[in-house]
Specification:
10 helices, elongated, mainly alpha, 248 residues, 67% helix
Length: 248
């Protein structure tokens, strides 16, 4: 599928998601009730879900940090070329844009949507509000949208885009898609199951991650840069001149 068709498909999906949650805002409460405990609270909030969620969050943060350090090392040690640097920067910038700027900096602090576990329906005191509706039910670190889901999508989708043309073995692309979708879906499910986010929070965070990846793709010229990925791997695995001469 061409880049233009991907953009059109993305816009259609975004419009459809917005239309569905605007027409049926009760979907969020219905999905959250599936994980709620009678009398208040959420089942996963006291189970292993919290540990799994924290593990996945730390994994995403560590991978992002490693990519940042790799980029800085490439700059100062001249180990990477321009194409290499753009490939490393791609997922980092996608995470920064989707999770850092859109989810955390802009929406969380201005929409004011209460988290599910603080709603009166689930034992709290706050009132429910639909996605995108600006309210004053939350002061800081609010529900709309999910920074962790945006991080997962902003990290996984660019990596998938980088590897895509090199996944030529039978089933390799399906496996890669399954891994990326599974990672994003698991993070989303955990955030909903823990009562920390609504379904719409997760859906729009995935869309923000996909949007960041699409927007940065032509800016960083990823299509050209990813063609050199096999040569990059070969250069990284090739011994240095000193090593070939047995110099230590």
């Amino acid at each position: 599928m061409s880049y233009q068709r991907l953009v059109i498909a993305y816009l259609l999906v975004f419009i459809l998601a917005q239309a569905v949650f605007a027409a049926f805002p009760g979907i969020d409460l219905a999905v959250s009730r599936l994980f709620a405990v009678e009398g208040g609270g959420f089942t996963w909030a006291t189970g292993p879900g919290r540990t799994i969620n924290l593990t996945l969050r730390r994994l995403g943060e560590i991978v992002t940090l490693i990519l940042i350090l790799a980029y800085l090392a490439g700059l100062f040690l001249s180990r990477f070329r321009g194409d290499d640097l753009r490939l490393v920067a791609y997922p980092v910038l996608s995470v920064a844009l989707a999770s850092g700027v859109i989810a955390n900096l802009l929406l969380k602090h201005h929409v004011g949507r209460a988290r599910p576990d603080t709603l009166a329906e689930f034992g709290g005191t706050a009132d429910f509000s639909p996605a995108w509706q600006v309210v004053q039910e939350c002061v800081r670190n609010c529900s709309f949208t999910s920074g962790e889901v945006a991080l997962a999508a902003g990290l996984a989708l660019p990596i998938l885009a980088i590897l895509w043309p090199h996944l030529t073995r039978r089933g390799a692309r399906l496996l890669a898609i399954g891994a990326a979708v599974g990672y994003i879906a698991l993070v989303s499910l955990l955030r909903i199951g823990l009562g920390r986010h609504f379904l719409s929070d997760a859906v729009f965070s995935v869309l923000f991650g996909a949007g960041a990846a699409l927007a940065l793709y032509p800016v960083l010229r990823i299509d050209a840069a990813r063609r050199h990925l096999p040569q990059w791997v070969e250069r990284r695995s090739r011994p240095q001149s000193g090593e070939r001469r047995g110099v230590h």
